[in-house]
Design brief:
With 577 residues, the protein is mostly helical. The protein has 22 helices and twelve strands. Helix 8 packs antiparallel against helix 22 and helix 20 runs parallel beside helix 22.
Length: 577
């Protein structure tokens, strides 16, 4: 069976199942909404996405961070600004362009307004649950931080959408913090977990509804809440977010509203036109179908314009860089799969779409399982069966091609060209536990997996789980430890639910809490990422300095304190592992 035959069969299977049939209707609806959006947003994009002004500001280093300029609202319509810029004296200088920007743009982030969530409570139940004085004081401060991270979209965005890069949000939301002034897709999952831990159900629901609105307009959830993020998505966790809110509220109306949009998001990831689905040869007679990250946009990212220009000059592909940004792992040696592990891997080697990521396929498997659940709750057994079959096919494909004995993690990314597992060891592999791929294994095999592939995994270090074993100077590599990856591993072990896995989950939670507490205690700082080797130290590497705030970091810690209220967070990281 050829790869192209398998691809056609898969597409026909989706059509016969009714998913794309439904999506044709939602695509038409989406197109109407998108066309309305396009009229104003395309005008804004003439400045923020690709323009001579953008090029001048970024290449003249007017601001040290490229994101600064593209987050500045315009004082005047884009056509007027373009005309004035065309008359600016040449040759352009850094000072003349800086002055022009000051005269024609507002401060970055002034199109979002600080907002204290209505359901914020200084004394949520978690504070009475935590048994240690230090843990309680820490949690109290993190609860307070929700006020500083709350935002609403400014009315000016709705009034003058062509004069801002910000996407309109009907409801208030939570931002990560630091340079990240807008909402982000996959960050929101761990933010929602933290909010629900603090009894902030309405704020959690608001975030979900904003993201569902995005699907209805764009056909997917964009990377983040800015116009320059709309050509790519991020790890698809919205179905999981909907489930979190549903289980907390039992809001059937939300579920009915959500499944319409989630069906469309599922189609986005599985429609061959989007090139995020690939047929991979297992052998000469068999192929399987899995997903990958991809982008058809081959231009520099406006928010990292200068860095991308440099990467392109070295032969790098902008579409591959954008695909890596879609993965959430921007950037990592995972996306340089054919290169030897070394410390000077340039971004020009990035080939994201050559990989079928183990975590992406685990997340989509999870989406399929949750959509099956939602349709059963709504008494739609026929639609539920569609997703049952889809999840079974995906599970079989992952077990057939991504699982290989003798590798440190057992499950790995797959190289599309060869059908073989990648040699890179990464924390992405722990997503197979989180999504329930091992649920059907018996206790003996689960414990064997935990002991051999988790407990003895080289990624486990004294202050957390390292992202990879490769020290490439990129931020999604060794020695950085990221909050969502810790949570995925810990929750995965809890889902396996054996005595051995639960003990390891608690040990890893203890390590993480102690490292984060040591970093927080002196100045009250919560970092975006941490160092897996050094207790209490923030991470490094990548395109920008380590950021404070921080949405998903706070959410992960609050949930772990809720799960393990007796843990002594003041001990040294090495004391129990």
């Amino acid at each position: 069976m050829s790869g192209s035959t398998t691809w056609r069969q898969f597409s026909l299977w989706i059509l016969s199942a009714g998913i794309v049939g439904f999506a044709l209707y939602t695509f038409r609806t989406r197109n109407i909404l998108y066309n309305n959006f396009k009229k104003e947003r395309e005008r804004a994009c003439t400045i923020y996405c690709s323009s001579s002004l953008l090029h001048a500001v970024q290449t003249l280093n007017v601001f040290s961070d490229c994101k600064h300029f593209v987050d500045m609202p315009m004082k005047f319509p884009p056509e007027e600004i373009e005309l004035k810029f065309s008359k600016l004296a040449r040759p352009l200088t850094k000072e003349s362009v800086r002055k022009f920007v000051e005269e024609n743009f507002l401060e970055p982030g002034s199109d979002v307004i600080s907002h204290i969530p209505e359901d914020w409570n200084p004394t949520p139940n978690i504070l009475s649950k935590i048994e240690t004085k230090s843990g309680k004081a820490w949690a109290k401060d993190l609860v307070e931080k929700w006020k500083s991270l709350g935002r609403r979209t400014a009315p000016s965005v709705k009034k003058h959408p062509a004069q801002t890069s910000t996407l309109w949000r009907e409801k208030p939301f939570i931002v990560p913090g630091g340079r990240f002034r807008e909402s982000y897709y996959w960050d929101s999952y761990w933010i929602i977990e933290g909010l629900l831990t603090c009894d902030m159900k309405q704020t959690a629901k608001n975030i979900v509804e904003n993201l569902l609105d995005d699907i209805d307009v764009f056909g997917c959830v964009p990377n983040g809440g800015r116009i320059y993020y709309t050509t790519r998505s991020q790890p698809p966790l919205l179905a999981a977010m909907v489930d979190l809110v549903y289980e907390s509220t039992k809001d059937v109306a939300l579920l009915k509203r959500a499944v319409k949009s989630l069906n469309l998001e599922y189609t986005f990831w599985n429609d061959p036109k989007n090139k995020r689905i690939v047929s991979i040869s297992v052998n000469s007679n068999e192929s399987v179908v899995l997903n990958r990250y991809n982008s058809i946009d081959d231009t520099p990212r406006p928010e990292s314009y200068r860095e991308d220009i440099e990467t392109r000059a070295l032969g790098g592909s902008m579409s591959q860089i954008r695909a890596a940004a879609e993965s959430g792992w921007d950037f990592s040696s995972r996306w340089m799969p054919t290169e030897d592990a070394k410390s000077d891997l340039p971004l020009a080697l990035t080939a994201t779409s050559s990989v079928a990521p183990i975590d992406l396929n685990a997340f989509i498997y999870d989406m399929e399982r949750r959509l099956e659940k939602f349709h059963r709750i709504l008494n739609r057994p026929t639609k539920a069966k569609i997703y049952t079959k889809a999840s079974e096919k995906r599970k079989a494909a992952i077990l057939k091609i991504a699982m290989q004995e003798g590798t440190p993690s057992l499950f790995n990314d797959v190289l599309i060209s060869t059908g073989k597992p990648s040699s890179r060891t990464s924390a992405a592999s722990f997503a197979v536990m989180w999504c329930g791929l091992l649920d059907s294994w018996d206790e003996k095999n689960k414990d064997k997996f935990v002991e051999k592939y988790v407990e003895k995994n080289p990624l486990l270090m004294q202050a957390g789980i390292s992202t990879t074993t490769t020290q490439s100077k990129q931020q999604w590599d060794f020695p950085n430890a990221w909050p969502p990856l810790q949570a995925i591993a810990i929750d995965g072990l809890r889902r396996i639910n054996t005595e051995k896995s639960l003990k390891l989950a608690e040990n890893l939670a203890s390590l993480w809490l102690r490292s984060c507490y040591r970093a927080w205690e002196p100045k009250g700082h919560m970092y975006e990422k941490y160092n897996a080797e050094k207790c209490g130290q923030g991470g490094g590497g990548g395109e920008y300095n380590v950021q404070l705030g921080f949405g998903w970091s706070n959410g992960v810690v609050l949930r772990l304190l809720d799960l393990y209220p007796r843990l002594n967070v003041t001990k040294d990281c090495k004391s129990n592992y």
